[in-house]
Write a structure and sequence with these properties.
Layout lengths: L1 E4 L14 H9 L3 E5 L10 H6 L3 E3 L2 H7 L2 E3 L6 H4 L7 E4 L7 H9 L3 E4 L13 H18 L21 E5 L3 H12 L3 E6 L2 H10 L5 E4 L2 H9 L3 E4 L14 H5 L6 E4 L21 E4 L2 E4 L9 H30 L7 E4 L2 E2 L2 H6 L9
Parallel strand pairs: 1-2, 1-4, 2-3, 4-5, 5-6, 7-8, 7-10, 8-9, 10-11, 11-13
Antiparallel strand pairs: 6-14, 12-13, 14-15
Helix pairs in contact: 6-7, 6-11
Nicotinamide-adenine-dinucleotide binds next to helix 6, helix 7 and strand 8.
């Protein structure tokens, strides 16, 4: 199959769907890999690195879309890309179609075979989303430590303290992938860490995995209020799959935090779990102050580290992309294996129930 990797054109997007090493994996299986000129630049990957591993560099997106049978990219097509897509072409990317009716309409009209990273679920987790949560979680603590510094607007606390001076209190709401990774980095930096979750099994796992180094608390308003009042860094990492994040930390609770302490609400992309984190911020203007507390609410935290994000994303998507290239979409549909969950639109029809419901469209089945 001819695989095409375009340069991402969404504003602020510096990732690319493939790494140089992954090109070899396709080439060794008899596929051809076309990469648009400069596609890796934002992630620090030069064209000649891709060429070295067997890719052909294509000068324009137009040529790439004309020649490729399968488009392998990071984000959903942007308006400038709509007309480049062709009937029968496979598209493999983050699509988030439930929230993007216009993109869904274009993919239906163009009869593109559209497979979304985020609708493939394995053992209750979303393997192609997990690496971004790992990155956002680890970054959350690093970001918090940065903004706790006086010159960055914080109270002036070193996360790990020093001998004779207590470390910072880091409180994490939600102990899933983001929460666990945030907690690990905070513990590694020497902070005192509390994770709050309403899943007792999860708390048991975190307790065992961290040998009692971590404090765990069951999620209820009383426990949250007490933990928040003593927090130097509060991290929001709650998720209700498919729904808006519940507000767990109220405005009244935030008022009990000391001035100069920091909130990083990672869950802001799903609405946020801290009442005062009521708007998203950007990498260029990442914080604002509310009741003396510094709030950070960037919705694409992994965008700050595109090189790490590109490699982490490719590690997660590559096995599925190779399967898709080897088998083609028809066989993926017929076999009804794990990857078939990724098919959102095919032959002009929506075949993913959640997407169809969100867009008030009929849902066809893969048969
Ligand atoms: N801002 C960003 O750049 C970015 C990047 C990645 C993920 N996220 C977001 O981070 C959030 C967490 O993602 P994740 O991958 O860790 O999800 P996850 O499903 O792995 O973890 C969510 C956790 O929240 C817990 N939870 C649910 N309801 C709760 C409640 N009432 N009280 C306490 N805990 C509760 C769940 O038990 C689970 O452990 C999501 O909103 C996700 O969209 C944001």
């Amino acid at each position: 199959m001819i695989i095409g990797i375009p340069k991402e054109i969404m504003s602020g997007e510096n990732r690319v769907a493939i790494t140089p090493g992954a090109v070899t994996a396709f080439v060794n299986r008899g596929h051809r890999v076309l990469i648009e000129r400069g596609a890796g630049k934002g992630s620090g990957i030069e064209d000649d690195e891709f060429q070295h591993f067997g890719a052909e560099i294509v000068p324009t997106a137009k040529e790439l879309y004309e020649r490729a049978e399968m488009i392998y990219k990071v984000k959903e097509p942007q308006p400038e890309e709509y007309d480049l897509l062709r009937e029968g072409q496979i598209l493999f990317a983050y699509l988030h179609l439930a929230a993007k009716p216009e993109v869904a309409r274009v993919l239906m009209e163009k009869k593109v075979a559209a497979l979304a990273y985020e609708t493939v679920v394995v053992n209750g987790t979303i393997p192609m989303l997990a690496p971004m949560s790992e990155i956002a979680g680890r970054m959350a603590t690093q970001i918090g430590a940065h903004f706790l510094e006086k010159s960055n607007g914080g109270i002036g606390i070193l996360l790990g303290g020093v001998p004779g001076v207590t470390p910072a209190n880091v409180v994490v709401l939600g102990g899933g992938i983001v929460g666990m990774n945030a907690a690990r980095v905070a513990m590694g930096m020497g902070a005192t860490v509390t994770v709050i979750d309403n899943n007792i099994q999860r708390l048991r796992y975190l307790d065992e995995a961290n040998g009692g180094r971590l404090l765990t608390l069951y999620s209820n308003p009383e426990n949250i209020a007490r933990a928040v009042a003593g927090a130097d860094l509060l991290i929001g990492a709650v998720l209700i799959p498919g729904g808006r994040t519940p507000i767990l930390c109220t405005k009244e609770m935030v008022k009990t935090m000391r001035p100069g302490t920091v909130i990083v609400d990672v869950a802001i992309d799903q609405g946020g779990c801290i009442e005062t984190a009521d708007r998203t911020t950007s990498h260029s203007a990442p914080t604002y102050e509310r009741y003396g507390v510094l709030h950070y609410a960037v919705s694409n935290i992994p965008g700050a580290v595109p090189r790490t994000s590109t490699y982490a994303l490719n590690n997660a998507t590559l096995p599925f992309a190779l399967e898709l290239a080897d088998k083609g979409c028809a066989r993926i549909m017929a076999e009804k294996g794990t990857l078939s969950q990724g098919i959102n639109i095919i032959n002009g029809k929506v075949v993913n129930r959640a997407v169809a419901e969100a867009l008030s469209l009929d849902c066809d089945n893969l048969d």
